[in-house]
Amino acid sequence: MVEQRLDFVIFGATGFTGKYAVKVAAQLAKEKKMKFGVSGRRKQALEAVVKEFASDIEDVPILIADLKDQESLKNMTAQAKVLVNCSGPYRFYGEPVIKACIATHTHQVDVSGEPQYIESICLKYNKEAEEAGIYIVSACGFDSIPCDLGIIFAQQQFKGEINSIETYLSVWTTTKVNDALVHYGTYESAVYSIANFHELRELRSKLYPEKLPQLWPKLKTKRFIHKCPVSEGWSVIFPGSDRSVALRTQRFLYEKYKQRPIQVQTYVTFKSLFMVLSTIILGLIFVILSKFEFGRNLLRKYPTFFSGKFVSHESPKEEVLDKVRFSITFQAKGWYEKLADPADKHKNPPNKVLITEVTGKNPGYGATCIMLLLSAITILKESDKIPGTGGVLSPGAAFGKTSLIEELNKNDIQFRFLTSV
């Protein structure tokens, strides 16, 4: 019976992100009075993780499951109310877990930042998830809760009607570091995501057969290096999954609640022109190499070289990651007045600007796992505030009406109102 299940199980608990998730789970489980387990292929390795990161938690069950054995996955998911999936790249390893969750009526959250995977799962399994009465929510980490829920937060603060939001991401360290900041697994996911970017056009034509209403004025993309008053430094288009996840949420809000969809563009800001030019050059090399098998092999073999020393096969040191800070600044433009129909057009140009931000530390792992575990807990505690009775949802669609933003604020991921004009 569902009542006898563990509140959540962390699958892939011996991986780098999985270990962080166990550490965060141990803290939150005590605070929220919840029961969790860990899962993976190797019992001895799982026991070591529990001993290191959850030694003060009484009886953390260890479940053995292998991605090559579907029955073992179903045995695992059948013992959880929510499956917290930390086993990526999800392009290769995510779908068997989704199938097991549907078969056993188990909710699932993960930290995938791979648009092709996220949107293909929505296309393939949304109806089955609805029928099973479960929520499947990807992108529940730094990709892309700060951006997606940050836009929801801006909507809540705006008190009018938003036409467009531009986001500006900044990441920096509080002291000079010479060590890698990104684990290889995260980097490998990016390699395959960029290599298969071409899949998105056909995928989206199937997923979104109906077009959204034409919005005015149309948000113009700043395609070149530029400066913006709300972000200190030089900015370029951010190539991550934030925009695709946010647009999924906006489409959902339009289709579900007839809410005017917001136009979104995402940028990343660098402190110096040298840094942005260096990043563009490395990015172009990365994109070109990712298109060929030979190039992908090079990228995988020499991650430190092709990432400018930000990535390594070695696990980043926790004391180094804790020195990393991030902020996303949101510039929302719209109108003080709100029209009755989302397809209606305002007669005048936007007359209101709102600036908000989301800030935190250790975005790739520490903050990511806080977001991930709190997402799982929110499904358990506030399912009555999540739309429908199941489905494959984006974070904003799933958690926009819950208390997740408030819970993140309590855990050092701050959503702030800055100014309004």
UniProtKB/TrEMBL annotation:
Q: Which terms are listed as keywords in the entry?
A: Membrane, Transmembrane, Transmembrane helix
Q: Which GO terms describe its biological process?
A: glycolipid biosynthetic process
SUPFAM superfamilies in the cross-refs: NAD(P)-binding Rossmann-fold domains
Q: Which residues cross the membrane?
A: 273-292
Provide the Saccharopine dehydrogenase NADP binding domain boundaries: 9-137
Q: Does the keyword Cell division apply?
A: no
A single Gene Ontology CC annotation of this entry is: lipid droplet
Keyword Lipoprotein annotated: no
Q: Which family does it belong to?
A: Belongs to the saccharopine dehydrogenase family.
**What is the name attached to this protein's record?**
Saccharopine dehydrogenase-like oxidoreductase
Tell me the lineage of the source organism.
Eukaryota, Metazoa, Ecdysozoa, Arthropoda, Hexapoda
